[in-house]
Structure prediction request, 51 residues.
Amino acid sequence: MPCPKCGSTNLIKIEDKSTILTYVAHTPVYAKKYKCLDCGYEWRPKEEEKT
Ligand SMILES: [Zn+2]
Prediction:
């Protein structure tokens, strides 16, 4: 998915440490978000990618 702000596909997937989904063995599992390396915009995907 391209950046919704600038349309770049130069993206990385990072952990959104402000959003904890659950805990596994006392370790927090963070939500994922994308960051555009061109404009710096960060956003959460509507749903997690299926693996
Ligand atoms: Zn962008």
Notes: The CA atoms of residues 34 and 43 lie 5 Å apart. The pocket of zinc ion is lined by residues 3, 5-6, 8, 36, 38-39, 41 (CB under 6 Å). The mean pLDDT is 91. The first strand starts at residue 11 and ends at 24.
